[in-house]
Amino acid sequence: MPKPPLADYRAKRDFTKTPEPAGVTKRSTPPGRRFFCVQKHLASHLHYDFRLEHDGVLLSWAVPKGPSLDPAEKRLAMHVEDHPLDYGDFEGVIPEGYGAGIVMLWDRGTWEPEVEDVRAALERGDLKMRLDGFKLKGSWVLVRTRQVEGRSWLLIKHRDEWSSGELDILEFAPLSVKAGGDFADILAQDQPDIWTSNRPARSGEAGQMFQTIIGRALAIKAEREERGRRKARGGGRTTPAAAGQKKTARSTQKRVPPKAR
Ligand code: MN
Fold this sequence. Notes:
Strand order of the largest sheet: 1-2-3-4-9-8-7-6
Number of domains: 1
Number of helices: 6
Bound molecules: manganese (II) ion
């Protein structure tokens, strides 16, 4: 019996512990348009999750090195479980469990297959498509490699007016298309001290990244709180001298016994 849609997605997650959508509400895509997105995900390793709307779910591939505009670059893309449509807006912090780390909405837009039948193309392992995102545009292909497991594909840019052998799009446009920030900004919106004891990656490149990002997020939050305190102090239009006078007036009043009136 075929599994119900999103069964694998739900089985991997505890929705009492992750802010990721459980996929119960359907995101509405304008009729005739197919949604796509790329989420930059710092977990045990940094990778980019490439997602295409098809048949009510987001088909998903994890791309360790991220997409490249260079047609000579074939980027490994591991086919992973389908995600719910409303995952396409998700950006935030996954505190623990599967995929624990930080998710940034790195690109989003619409896509069009350059084949007649998407299902057949997926079965064949050769899906040609056009992307119309903020960062990724033009013609691309996902091709399955001849591995036994069948989960590894390659994401390749076709040569066109949107391809480039020089521009590294990951470095040129590293920030969120949702809130405009980087990983530290996203973490600062949450609890920057969430991983003081067990961060998702301790060593290697990802471990280094977490250390830097946590430090920056703590600084962003501290600065924001200091600004808030200054505003609160300045907002009452009470000078220290006036405050002192008020206090004196109050204590004088207290000292006057009721009988003396
Ligand atoms: Mn991921």
